[in-house]
Design a protein that fits this description.
Elements (H helix, E strand, L loop, with lengths): L2 E8 L4 E10 L3 E10 L10 H19 L5 E5 L7 H15 L5 E4 L1 H8 L7 H11 L7 E2 L2 E2 L3 H14 L3 H10 L7 H8 L21
Helix pairs in contact: 1-2, 3-5, 4-5
Amino acid sequence: MFNLKVVGIDLAFANMGLCRALISQEAVKVTDLRLVKTEGFEGKSVRKNSSDLRRAQELQTALISFCEGATLAFCEIPHGSQSARASWSLGISVGVLASCKVPVIQLSALEVKMVTVGKKTASKQEMIEWAVARHPAAPWLYSKKRLVAANEHLADAVATIYAGMKTDEFKRLVALLSQPNDGGETARKMFQDTHYLSGLGAGIPRYKKRKLT
């Protein structure tokens, strides 16, 4: 058996979603959710780059604090931008992630959507519905008893944990953390568990031996 404290990260400059969870062979238990919002206050008295620096510091402080005590984190690494400003924000976000004090398992947007909703075109609303259905007791954001759109960032943070648990990198880590005197039984059971049906080697073609010439 294993129990790991992990963090799921939805990385963004304006709205960073964070999820803290306890994961085991049987279940994923979300213990906390947090939305970190940053706003620009640039104007005649504040330069835009100074405002960006402040916002980056706010994200960094929140990320390091939230990850305290965790074994590792999962994050969908953002990529691509359609403007110079978007590229600038993306660079700052990736820089903030680089300051994370725990190991980070990197994921693509496609991996996260396929593992959770099951389709690469999953909408923000579908991601929210998926996450809330699995963790209805989690501290989601409400307004007048209705879920708000900002939950998309929290839902994505939750989803990164599920997607990260499917990666070979995570499986190898769990195998290393398993009890060394059980003959690998814990690791074998993990690979057979329903959470990990796509275990190591799934879908990987076998290589044929070739004669050396």
